[in-house]
Write a structure and sequence with these properties.
With about 600 residues, the protein is an alpha/beta fold. It is built from 23 helices and 17 strands. Residues about 260-270 and about 275-290 have low confidence and may be disordered. It comes from Fusarium oxysporum f. sp. cepae.
């Protein structure tokens, strides 16, 4: 541990003849410093100009301070640090820049700095790369109303708030749990059935209303889906209300419009006692030049201590709090119930173990908390069909297959999460919050196809997708897109299995691939849809929060077509080359879930 400058001054003063004139041993007893350290401090001060016989004694900092260390000059200057922080905290676009981008911008102004240095400087300043905080978007009017509401209620006492009844509505979907939750599993268990969260099609959705206050839980109400008769009755009642309301609203409008028109708005070392020679491992060092000297010495010493049994020496430290039976109990619990929370698992063990110790133990067991994977729900029959399909096609040339699919692109859907540099207290600054807005009503259905080294342009579909539309599309595209020996793939949607479509494929002599049910993980085009959506908002970020207009619909179509064409050919080929691995994964899982 370094000695502070005040202690060094004390040592020099006590040892000087004109000062304390004490011996080194006496000074060591007074200060607790080693004899070697005391001699080093005193010799350094004399070498730099200290006069021990001078009266009065005179000491300056330069005689006592450490000498400057050798090495290249540091790049971590205060000016550079301030410049980096200024770039990051300027606005939301600065927050979203990566460390590599910031290092690149600094190189343009003559500051040669690496990405890792930028990252470490930001961490020293308290910044971390985190997901942005998501909050509902607020307009100027909304902010004003929120502020006025808070000002009006800031003087309310706790008793006043206890009298408030809070109510709200929410949408509830059967067989669906909102938000992500984590499970206990090993890294290789990601597609084990008990670690899969199944997605069921055709789930029922209903609206739920409830209310509560400080000491009471109010009633609740569920709205069941409307029948056709109830819809007609509601429309009739709404029409009657509107007829009665229209004259009143018209009169208010006329009055407001009239007022508006009037404009009334308002240190030497000790001698070595051990030498480096052949007896201490020098020969080993020659044979293994990459092994550190300290490691060789430690290994030879420990080998002599272990003896013939070669057993590791007992480690120091506190004894383990958990018995082997309790450790086995914990392992069995997280294996049987992977959804159990850490707190519940801690409560199930009859031992005063800390939460942190439990987490370390689970890591030793190779059990970590993972986000549960979501997959389309499969029945045993569907899993068997997937296995049969994999066995049937496991030996084919996958570069001959042309993959196709339809996909709905909705404005605002598929935007990748943005990571920003933030310190904890800046998480809710206005410019650092990502506004969580509802997905827009503007949407467009597209059809696309690709193979190894080929792709079709993205085709926007007009109106509802039906068998006639697919017939017209296939009759124009397939004759020139498919080459002799190609295998065409489409899924089992009703528009693909219609008689007119089957007849067209037979007429065109298309070699069709039999497709298993509920198998989006086997179609590599599914990976392209996610890449395409992310590319849309990278090329056109303005579409993220665009208004739901006809112009936005047209811009979304053009952006999707541009994003599709912008996907690298290398990505398409790599996806096709993953098919042998997908087949192997299906066979290994006996038709059940895979990582794809």
């Amino acid at each position: 541990m370094p000695t502070d400058i005040a202690t060094r001054a004390l040592v020099v003063t006590l040892k000087a003849p004109s000062g304390g004139a004490k011996t080194t041993a006496e000074i060591s007893a007074l200060t607790g410093l080693a004899v070697r350290t005391i001699n080093s401090i005193y010799a350094r001060a004399i070498h730099r100009g200290f006069e021990p016989n001078e009266t009065p004694l005179r000491l300056i900092n330069e005689w006592l301070e450490d000498a400057p260390r050798s090495g290249r000059p540091t790049k971590r200057t205060e000016e550079t640090k301030d410049l980096i922080i200024a770039k990051v905290s300027r606005d939301r676009y600065g927050r979203e820049k990566s460390a590599a981008d910031i290092a690149g911008e600094l190189s343009l102004v003559g500051i040669d700095i690496s990405k890792s240095t930028v990252t470490s400087l930001l961490k020293e300043a308290g910044y971390r790369k985190t997901k942005p905080t998501r909050k509902p978007g607020l307009t100027t009017k909304m902010r004003k109303e929120r502020l006025e509401w808070c000002l009006a209620h800031q003087d309310w006492t706790l008793e006043d708030w206890k009298a408030v009844i809070w109510s709200d509505e929410t949408s509830v979907i059967l067989l669906h749990r909102r938000g992500g939750y984590r499970i206990w599993r090993k890294a290789e268990e990601r597609v084990t059935r008990s670690c899969i969260r199944e997605r069921w099609k055709g789930s029922s959705e209903f609206m739920f209303w409830a209310a509560f206050s400080y000491d009471k839980k109010g009633p609740c109400h569920c709205w069941r889906p409307e029948t056709a008769k109830e819809k007609k009755e509601a429309e009739a009642a709404l029409t009657a209300i509107n007829e009665a309301l229209e004259p009143v609203m018209k009169t208010q409008w006329e009055i407001t419009n009239g007022i508006r028109r009037l404009g009334l708005r308002n240190l030497p070392g000790k001698k070595p006692d051990w030498k480096w020679n052949k007896e201490t491992g020098k020969l080993i060092k020659k044979h293994f030049p990459d092994i550190p000297l300290g490691t060789i010495k430690t290994t030879l010493r420990r080998e002599a201590q272990r003896g013939a049994d070669n057993i590791s020496l007992p480690r120091s430290g506190a004894p383990r709090k958990l018995t082997e039976e309790q450790r086995d109990q914990i392992y069995d619990t997280v294996t049987t119930d992977p959804h159990i929370t850490t707190r519940d698992l801690l409560d199930s063990v009859d031992n005063a173990i800390k939460l942190r110790s439990l987490r370390y133990l689970l890591r030793e067991m190779n059990k970590r908390k993972w986000m549960q994977k979501k997959r389309v729900a499969l029945t045993p029959l569907q899993a068997r069909k997937r296995l049969d399909w994999a066995i049937r096609y496991q030996g084919i040339d996958w570069r001959r297959v042309k993959w196709s699919d339809e996909y709905m692109v909705r404005r605002g859907q598929g935007v990748r999460p943005i990571w920003t540099f933030l310190s904890p207290r800046e998480a809710l600054r206005v410019q650092d919050v990502s506004e969580a807005r509802r997905q827009g009503a503007v949407r467009q259905m597209f059809w696309a196809a690709f193979g190894h080294g080929s792709r079709m342009p993205l085709v926007p579909l007009v109106g509802n997708v039906n068998a006639i539309g697919i017939y017209d599309l296939y009759s124009v595209i397939l004759p020139w897109f498919l080459q002799p020996g190609d295998i065409f793939m489409h899924d089992n949607a009703s528009v693909h299995t219609a008689r007119v479509v089957k007849a067209l494929l037979e007429e065109l002599q298309v070699q069709l691939m039999i497709w298993p049910p509920y198998s989006p993980d086997l179609n590599p085009i599914e990976n392209l849809w996610a890449l395409m959506k992310a590319e849309i908002y990278r090329l056109h970020p303005e579409l993220t929060h665009a208004e739901d207009t006809v112009a936005t619909q047209h811009a979304l179509v053009l952006a999707a077509m541009e994003a599709w064409d912008n996907l690298e050919e290398r990505v398409l080929k790599n996806l096709c080359d993953t098919m042998p691995n997908r087949i192997t994964a299906i066979i290994t899982a006996e038709g059940w879930y895979t990582k794809y």
